[in-house]
Design a protein that fits this description.
Elements lengths: L4 E6 L8 H23 L10 E3 L7 H12 L3 E8 L5 H4 L7 E6 L8 H13 L5 E4 L13 H20 L3 E5 L13 H8 L2 E5 L2 H9 L4 H14 L14 H4 L9 H16 L3 H12 L6 H26 L10 H4 L6 E8 L2 H8 L1 H18 L5 E4 L4 E7 L3 H17 L10 E7 L7 H19 L9
Parallel strand pairs: 1-2, 1-3, 3-4, 4-5, 6-7
Antiparallel strand pairs: 8-10, 8-11, 9-10
Helix pairs in contact: 1-5, 7-10, 8-10, 11-12, 14-15, 15-16
């Protein structure tokens, strides 16, 4: 997001030959301290700390003022705070950008007090029709005192708070929901004032728009349900002042919402009003296409097309999530996907025998065929509740929920029998070694249990040289 920033302008006495040089560090420290004060105490509406941009150079004359102005023009600086500990040239150093909000902090110090520059530069601002806020401390400080007095800090923060608010509103819209103000003086929207003084435009939305969105469902249904649940939980319903009254038809016929639906309608109205004022991410896909980009006769068709596109996107997202949790070659799940579920289980850790020899002798396509054949055998031999995954090149893991070592070992043996009966053409029968383990050891993590089965597999592989094996704990 492009946040409105506050530019800190370090203004300095531009006379070289000892004067300027002696003030460089003090002036930059003032700028840095002011930026730190603002960023640590103020936040944007979304909670992000307010951002400040310190000038790339101290400003002692017109050329440096122009350099800093160019720097600020690329950073969305909407307000500037000029800081100085000394006397400086006024019109040569002041902020002459007509679009920024301006303030000047003159340091009240024992040497070269900033009050002189403050008075001069404010006069320059007034002459040019560029108003600026004046900030000056009540008490005199030592020249080397880097602290910001409380009264100065309060003034800087008040200025920065207002400047950020104005910057945040710039190029946004004041949205009127409903165009009639019942004749209340001063309550109408003056578009000219909003544009001239706040830099925002005015828009009008008739209240019937809320009814339209309710009737065809243009809102985020999940977010509405959350809002309604919160209201029902936190807002206690008061007494019904009209209960038992014999109201005239002009009133009873005016109420189009049944009494038992009042809360739903009230929450929905407020929810839709908020979505029109501040377009949230979750509702943006609905509202932008159907409401904000064109209020015409084709809105229902656009809405339905948008919903269809959203369903396709959600289906595609589900496919991508599933693909991310599966091995591309065998279609088996990844171990990360399996072990995130905390149920008791038994595991078999399998290693295909002789894959390297198959790859070296017959090529990697033959090796891939053997791996696919092994995965198919595991699928057909283990029950439906089992979860299978490929750990690495020739290693597989089977997770059997609610199972024990004997059961998982028996199914692994059945997979070996399937492989023996269905050799890979040109290669022969595929086989594997395996080790098993089951949960139940107190304090043992899922990863530690899998590692135990892995060790058992290697023990059996060494002992039987790749023949049928398994079960060792």
């Amino acid at each position: 997001m492009l946040y409105p920033k506050i530019g800190i302008r370090p203004v300095i006495d531009g006379r070289w030959g000892g004067v300027r040089e002696s003030l460089e560090n003090q002036t930059m420290r003032m700028a840095e301290n002011a930026a730190k004060l603002i960023s640590e105490n103020l936040k944007y509406p979304d909670g992000t700390p307010v951002q400040c941009v310190i000038g790339c150079t101290t400003i002692g004359g017109g050329a440096e003022a122009a350099r800093v102005a160019e720097q600020f023009s690329t950073q969305n600086v909407t307000a500037t705070l000029s800081v100085t500990p000394c006397w400086c040239y006024g019109t040569e150093t002041f902020d002459m950008d007509p679009n920024t909000i301006k303030a000047v902090w003159g340091f009240n110090g024992t040497e070269r007090p900033g009050a002189v520059y403050l008075a001069a530069v404010l006069a320059a601002h007034a002459q040019r029709g560029l108003p600026a806020f004046s900030i000056y401390g009540h008490d005199v400080q030592e020249a080397n005192d880097d602290t910001i007095p409380d009264d100065v800090a309060e003034k800087i923060l008040r200025f920065a708070r207002g400047a950020v608010a104005a910057g945040w509103m710039k190029n946004k819209a004041y949205v009127n929901i409903g165009a009639v103000t019942m004749g209340i003086a001063g309550s109408f929207c003056d578009a000219g004032v909003l544009q001239k003084y706040f830099g925002i435009r005015a828009e009008w939305v008739d209240e019937v728009e809320i009814l339209r969105r309710i009737s065809i469902g243009i809102y985020d249904h999940d977010e509405y349900e959350k809002a309604l649940a919160w209201v029902c939980e936190n807002c206690k319903e008061g007494f019904d002042k009209n209960l038992g009254k014999n109201l005239p038809p002009v009133i009873t016929k005016s109420k189009i919402v049944p009494a038992d639906k009042d809360w739903e309608f009230i929450v929905m109205s407020e929810f839709l009003g908020a979505s029109m004022l501040l377009l949230g991410v979750s509702v943006a896909a609905f509202v932008v296409a159907t409401s904000l980009l064109g209020r015409d006769a084709h809105v229902e068709e656009e809405y339905l097309a948008l919903m269809e596109r959203r369903e396709r996107q959600e289906a595609r997202l589900g496919q991508l999530r599933d693909q991310a949790s599966r091995d591309a070659l065998t279609g088996l799940r990844t171990v990360e996907d399996l072990l995130e579920h905390g149920r008791p289980f038994a595991v078999a850790y399998l290693d295909m025998n002789g894959l390297k020899a198959v790859n070296d002798t017959f090529g990697h396509e033959a090796g891939d065929a053997c791996l696919v054949r092994l995965a198919d055998a595991l699928r057909s031999s283990f029950p439906g509740r089992a979860a299978l995954c490929r750990m690495s090149g020739d290693e597989f893991l089977v997770v059997l929920p609610e199972g024990d070592e004997r059961e998982v070992g028996r199914h692994a043996g059945e997979a070996l029998e399937v492989l023996a009966a269905q050799p890979v053409e040109g290669v022969g029968a595929v086989s594997f070694s395996f080790g098993t383990a089951a949960s139940g050891c107190e304090g043992e993590s899922a990863a530690a249990l899998v590692a135990r089965a892995d060790r058992a597999m290697y023990q059996s592989k060494r002992a039987y040289h790749g023949r049928v094996s398994g079960g060792a704990r």
